[in-house]
Amino acid sequence: MPLTYIPRDLDYVPPPGQEVTRLETHHDDLFRETNVPSRAWNRPLDLPPEDPTLGLCARHRLMDLKRSDFGPRPFSQQQLPPEWYLGTYTEVAARGLWCKMCQLIAEACDDIAWPDEADIVMSWIGDVRWKKKVHSPENDPLSNGMKTTEETWETLWLRVRSIMIGRAPPFTPFDLVPVGRREGELFQGRGLKEGQIDLDLVRTWLRSCREWHGTECSHWLRQQSVSEPTSVPTFDPFIRVIDLEENCLVERSDLVRYVALSYVWGRVQVFKTREETIDELRVPGGILERKPLFPRSLRDAMTLAQRLGYRYIWIDSICIIQDDDTDTYQNLDKRHQIGQMGKIYQYADLTIVAASGEDANAGLPGVEAGTREAKQKEVKISDDLTIMNRAVAWPDALLRTTWEERGWTYQERILSLRYMYFVDGTVHFQCQRATWSEDFAAECPSLELSAADQVVDFSHIPSEVPPPVELRPNLKFQLKRYPELVGQYTCRNMTFITDRVNGIQGILNVIKDHFFSENVGFVHGMPTGELLHPGLLWRPRLEPKRIHMDEKKGRPLWPSWSWAGWTVPVYYDYGADFSATSTGRYQADISLGPDPYFLHLVARVGRFRLMIEDRGNEDAVPPLPRVRPTRLTRYAITHATNTHEGDEEWIGSIWLTWSYRRKFVEHQLKLISRVTQEFIILSEADKFEREELVEAATAEKRAVVNVMMIERREDPGTDGRVRIERAGVGRMYRDAWYGVEEKWERFELG
Q1: Dist CA 665 CA 673 (whole Å)
Q2: What is the 3-state secondary structure (H, E, C) of 261-274?
Q3: Residues in contact with 402: Cβ distance below 8 Å, sequence separation at least 6, in sequence order
Q4: Do residues 120 and 460 lie in contact, with contact meaning Cβ atoms separated by under 8 Å?
Q5: ∠ Cα 149 432 157 (to 5°)
Q6: Residue ranges of the Heterokaryon incompatibility domain (predicted)?
C-alpha cells in the first residue's frame, strides 16, 4: 500500500469549496517516534492560519524562503536546512488556487499519477561547488599585509520529489532554484529562450572551454600546440567528412576541426551513401541536392555546426558507404571506416548528441525557431527572490532516452572530449572539466562540481541525516577498467547483432594504445596476453543464448569463450582480478591457437554434478536496468558421487541456462542432476562472492578456484586436441578436487 504521511498541522482548513481527503495508512508507526524530529520531513509544524489573501500558504510562509537560503556559503558548512512535507498532490494543487509556490509545484508535476496518494516533499541538497579566493589579515602581528587563500564554496537547491512507497514515482522529480537578478549572474537559474536555443550562449561554452581548459579538452588544440607538425596522418587511410562550405563529401587524413553527430537511426528511413551515389556527393553542391532527403536530426546538426563556425561535420550514414546492409563486411570501405570510429569521436572538436527522441527524425529541438517549448515556470516570492523550476540533473534524463540504450552510442559517449546534449527540450554542454546547462548559469573557470556530477540517494523514510551524495562515475576513468566497460556496453541494444564487437572496438583500440602493455591485445572483444585468464571469467546476467551461425564458416560468429559469442548482457565480479600478472595463480595453460577463433588449453578436468541449493545473495549481482525476468539459474555444484550417505555437499556455484534442470531428479528433498558434468580448473580465486555464498566473508578458509563447465564437440580439433565449448564459469572449493582422479587433457576451446 502506498505511503501517505498524516500531516501534524491538523488545523489546516482548505478554502471554501475545496475539500481534501486525508488518507491514513499502516505506515503511521514509522513516524510516531519518541524522539521529536527536528530536520526530517515528518517533524511537527506549528503552522499559522491559512490566509488566501497573502499569496502563500501557511507552509511556505513558515518556510520563509530567502535568496540567501540558496547560498553561496562555505562548503565546510555541512548542515543542510530541514526538509518540508507539502502533503499529497491533491492538497498542493488545492492550495495552488491562492499559493504561488504550490501552483508552481503543481504545474511542474508533469503527468501526475495517483494524485490523492502522491506525497510531496522538498529537500535541500548541495548544487555547484567552486573555488573562491578569500582575503584575510595575516596572523603575524608584525605584518600589515593581507593573505589570500582559496576556499570551496557551494550553492543549494530544492529537490521536489515524491515519498510514495510501493509504486513507481508518480511524477518526475524537479528542482527549484533562484532566478538571477541580472543577466549572467553566476550560480542562479537562467530563463530558457522560448522556441529556440541561445546560440550566443553555446558559442560562449565552446570559447570558454578552449580558453580555460586548453588541450585537455581538444585533440585539435593539442596538434596546434606541437611546434613541429608530424607527417604521420591522423587517419589511415582517411575519414570522409561533409564540407559545409562546398556542400560535398571530402576525404581527409589530417586532423581538421570538425563536429561529429551521435544519434539513433530508429525505424525511420535514413539516407545512406552508396557506391552508386558517392561520386555525386563528392561534387561541390552534391550534398545540398540530397539534403532534403536527410532525416531531421542530420539536417539540424549540419545547421548547428555551421552556425557555430565549423566547416566540417561527420555523420555515419553519409560519411561511410553503406551498401552492405547485412553487415557481413564485404564492403572494404565500411570495414576501414568502422575501424576508425574510436578516433573519429575521440578527435572530434565537438560531439552533438541528439537524444530527444526515438529516431533520426526527432531533430535537435531549438536549433530552428519554434521547434521547442520551454517548460520553465517562475514565481516571484518577494522583491528579493524569484523561484524557477528546472529539470533534475540531465544525466538522469539521459538514462531514460533511446539514445542511452543503443550499443553504438556507448563508445561515442565514452570517447568524445566535448559533448553538446539535446535532451528534455534543453541543451547541455559537457567537457573534461565542466558541465554547463542552458537553464543554470555556472560558466566559471574555478568550477569544481555541479549537480549533474552528483547522484543523491534520497530516502522515502524520514531521516534526520541528510541524504548521501556520490559522484557520478567518470566515463574517462572507465577506459582503464575493461570489466566495467564490457558490463555497461553489453547491456545496450544492437540493431544488427553482427555489430556486437564493432560497437566497442573503438574503445578497445584506445585501451590498447594508452593503458595496456604491448603484451595485451583484443580478439573477439576479449583481452589476450597477460589478461587472457581473467578475461575468461565473465558471467551472464540473463539466460545465455549462443550467437547465430556464420554460414560460410559453419560455426557461430564468435567463440563461446568470448562474451561476444552470446546474445546477453554480461558482467565481471570482483573475483576477476585484472591486475594479476603472476602466472602462479593460473592453473591452466591457455593461449591463442593459430586460428584465433580457438584457444589452446592444457587443463585438469573432472566430473561433478549440479543441484539446486542457492546459498547466494541475489541482491549482490550488479543491477541491470530495463531487464525482464529471466530463466537464468544459479546451480550448486556437488560431488559426482555422495560418499557421506547424507546430504549432498555444497562445493561451489555456477550460472547456467534453465535447460539443465530437465535432467534433474528429486533426491533427499533436493533437486539434483542425474548426469555428471565436466569442469576444468582455470585459476585460483580469492574467495566466493556474496552472490554465490552469503557467508563468503566468514566462511572457513578453504582455497577457492575458478572453474569452467565444458561441453565436448564431435568435430575434431587441430593437432589431436579435443574440441570443446564453454557452458559457464563458476567457483568451487579447491579441496573438492582432491577426491577426483587427476587427469589433464589438451583442449581446443571454440
Answers
A1: 6
A2: EECCCCCCCCCCCC
A3: 264, 266, 355, 357, 358, 359
A4: no
A5: 65
A6: 258-412
Q: Of 368, 367, 364, whose CA–CA distance to 354 is shortest?
A: 364
The answer to whether 388 touches 179, Cβ cutoff 8 Å, is yes
DSSP-derived pairing of the beta strands 146-162 and 426-430: unpaired
Question: Do the Cβ atoms of 609 and 638 come closer than 8 Å?
Answer: yes
Selected residue with higher pLDDT from 298 and 622: 298
**Tally of CB atoms within 10 A around 345:** 23
CB 1 within 8 A of CB 26: yes
Give pLDDT tens digits for 267-312: 888 888 988 889 999 999 999 989 999 999 999 999 999 999 999 9
Per-residue model confidence (pLDDT) at position 479? 57
Give pLDDT, residue 222. Answer: 61
Query: Closest Cα to residue 635, out of 674, 617, 661?
Result: 661
State the amino acid at position 719 in one-letter form: D
Q: Which three cell numbers stand for residue 61?
A: 510562509
Residue 133: CB atoms within 10 A of its CB come to 9
> How large a percentage of the chain has pLDDT more than 90?
34
Q: What pLDDT score does 11 carry?
A: 33
Report d(CA 113, CA 749) in Å as an integer.
53
The whole-number pLDDT of residue 1 equals: 26
C-alpha cell at 485: 566497460
Percent of residues, the chain, with pLDDT higher than 70 = 81
User: What pLDDT was estimated at residue 4?
Assistant: 31
Query: Mean per-residue pLDDT for 631-648?
Result: 76
A 10 A CB-CB count for 737 gives 19
In the DSSP assignment, the letter for residue 194 is T
Cell numbers at 283, concatenated: 561534387
pLDDT at 106: 93
Choose among 689, 688, 746: nearest CA to 717.
746
Other beta carbons within 10 angstroms of residue 568's beta carbon come to 17
Residues 437 and 451: their CA atoms lie apart, in Å, by: 10
| pLDDT at residue 379 tops 80 | yes
3-state SS assignment for residue 482: helix
* Contact indicator for 748, 723 with CB cutoff of 8 Å: yes
Cβ burial of 431 (10 Å; 0-12, 13-18, 19+) is buried
Cβ distance 735 to 702 under 8 Å? yes
Q: Which residue from 237, 378, 367 is spatially nearest to 296, judged by alpha carbons?
A: 367
The reported pTM is 0.83
CB 124 within 8 A of CB 84: no
Using the CB atoms, write b or e for 198-225: b if 16+ within 10 Å. eeebbeebbebbbebbeeebbbbbebee
State the DSSP code for 104. H
Instruction: Name residues whose C-beta falls within 8 Å of residue 411's C-beta, 6 or more positions apart in sequence.
Output: 341, 342, 345, 489, 503, 504, 506, 507
C-beta of residue 651 within 8 angstroms of C-beta of residue 638: yes
- Rounded CA gap, 352 and 306, in Å? 13
Quickly list H helices, 199-295: 199-213, 219-224, 278-282, 286-290
Dihedral, CA of residue 394, residue 400, residue 406 and residue 411, to nearest 10: 30
- At 422-477, the pLDDT tens digits run 988 889 999 988 889 999 998 988 888 777 777 777 777 777 777 767 666 665 55
Is the predicted pLDDT of residue 584 greater than 60, yes or no? no
Residues 415, 410: Cα–Cα separation, whole Å? 9
Predicted pLDDT at 154: 86
Cα separation, 499 vs 737, in Å, equals 40
Contact 100/61 with Cβ under 8 angstroms? no
What whole-number distance in Å separates Cα of residue 353 and Cα of residue 472?
A: 19
Secondary structure tally for the chain: helices H, strands E = 18, 36
